[in-house]
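Quick illustration, no need to memorize.
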Amino acid sequence: MSVIVTLCLYDGIVMAADSRTTLIRTYPNGKQEVSHRDRQKKIFQFGDRNIGILWCGNAQVGDEDVPDYLNGLFSRLNKMATIKEIAEKINEECNERVIGETIRCHIAGYENGTQCFYQVVDGVVTHKNINPELGIPTICIVWDGIRDISGDIVHDKEKLDIGGRLVDESDIPHFTLDEGVRFARTMLKRSCVEREECGEPIYSLIITGEGIRWIYE
């Protein structure tokens, strides 16, 4: 399991993930062997569109690795498919092809100049950056994977040092994009320290109305 995080801020969207995959091999006698593989990509651009996809949980959809699956999905879908339609298709196909495993997926980008962010978790598709009362986009942070650690970090009374500035959850609505990136990366790095299932480097990207910018360590 991994940790992935998406922040919808005033100036754009920040998406980030750790890069360790946990492999579990089960022998006929029931004994399990756990190993880890580092520098595994869990964050993707959807085809040539300004849409980011974060993925954790099962590393395959049917007999396809996630990158191959997403490339095939891009080819199959209408090139003007909405982010909601992409999320619903991922959910539909994962329900059909992934048996007894967990899929956690974030799909985010801009549509008609407006931020749009959907989450797919265990067969449920949710529009995350929408104010349910007003029906308008809102600032939000969503994390998935090893949620207990991420939740403790985000809601902890201890402030996070994001490079010369101490912040906590109450500061998120006022973040610049750079601060959002540093907050996500700091949170993920702490998860990597506290849990063997998480590992560096941290990969992240920024999405604005202008396009996508990748950030590598």
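The chain has a mean pLDDT of 87.
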